[in-house]
């Protein structure tokens, strides 16, 4: 849909909203309708349909508390669409609680384990959703979606199945239960400063991990370590290791099905991943060893890091309000393993909006979740506000539409087809913590790589055994 058509549709929907809210008199309605090519008869039909739809059910109301990671992609795009939401639902008020993502993710599990009824919406990481589902702390959304079949069909057709990562047991398209909607898609990308690589005589980003090591080495030969990645102990370090392992053809388990679940970390692919990290280690900027997104984004923005071979995607690097290097930060697929069966296999990321089972105002919460996940068929103004408010949608149509103003959207679209999800297991977060702790021990010199791989396998086997997967 081109921008002119999007703007006309937005203005028509705004006209209907203003007319039904009583903000326009009859003369103003006719004048604005005429400017949009709608005659009196067409206006009458349009407003009549809208009134009948609004009269079918009473509008929800109440005060909501939305809990989200702080800053771009999560808290800020929610706030950006809120004025539009208030026009449609003036009786629903929303407040936000926002905190750094590294603290936010584990705290959501703690709060939901305690059955807290404080929050009405949580904008949480896909990795912990299976755990929250197993706790019984999330509200299934199928009844809400079934009540609006046109919306359900539209979002399932527009969000790729491997991105619609908020279901239990099987995808929604195959009858799985949905526990959230994804306004935010993401995967790891390779970020690089095009000006710095050019000055160093490097003509392109890395295709393989051997290329990435060579780039890191060349940049360090300038006298300053400029390569970074998120190796904070636990979840973040685990995510980097697993991405490299997968790029060499490995994965968590031999098979994720009954009778298997045998750990696949102390393997040839796991050893290749460990060797890549050890080869990068001498060239990594020091803050990498304790970096989550909260540390890596400022390091890239202020020029400390100029190359990040595996870094979560985001709008920040191309935002001139955040960094003076917005025009020279570029992104592409993460490197691949240079072996038979190797490929570019970043982690599928993103955060979905879920409704706690303990919320006291689920109907109103659903309306905001649905609103934030809308596409152009619902209202083009919503997607526009979400993107301009630093969001990166999960809808393929919006990623394509707004690629001209978000430099990393094409890299996301190119990477998502081969991106791989977190294991759809309640134990997923514990698995990453265990592996990430071993990775950190190697990178800080506490343990050698061979011992860490053995201990990874043992820790993962113990987690799965305790959870009953081998019975």
Radius of gyration: 24 Å
CATH architecture tag of the largest domain: 3-Layer(aba) Sandwich
Tally the helices.
19
Overall form: globular
What distance lies between the first and last C-alpha atoms, to the nearest angstrom? 53 Å
CATH class of the largest domain: Alpha Beta
Q: What is the percent of helical residues?
A: 40-55%
Q: According to CATH, what is the topology of the largest domain?
A: D-Maltodextrin-Binding Protein, domain 2
The overall strand count is: 10
Q: What does the oligomeric state look like here?
A: single chain
The CATH superfamily name of the largest domain is Periplasmic binding protein-like II
Instruction: Decide which structural class fits the backbone.
Output: alpha+beta
Q: What report would you give on this structure?
A:
With 471 residues, the chain is α+β, with helices and mostly antiparallel strands. The protein has three domains: 3-55; 62-185 and 350-394, D-Maltodextrin-Binding Protein, domain 2, CATH 3.40.190; 187-348 and 421-466, 3-Layer(aba) Sandwich (D-Maltodextrin-Binding Protein, domain 2). 45% of the residues lie in helices and 10% in strands. It has helices at 3-20, 26-35, 40-55, 75-88, 101-113, 129-134, 142-146, 149-158, 194-199, 209-220, 235-247, 268-280, 293-301, 362-372, 380-388, 396-401, 409-415, 428-443, 449-466, and strands at 62-69, 92-99, 121-125, 167-168, 177-178, 186-193, 307-312, 329-332, 348-349, 351-354. The strands form three sheets. It has a four-stranded mixed sheet, with helices on both faces. Strand 4 (167-168) and strand 5 (177-178) form a beta hairpin. Helix 4 runs antiparallel to helix 15 (380-388). The longest helix has 18 residues, at 3-20. The model has no long low-confidence stretch (mean pLDDT 90).
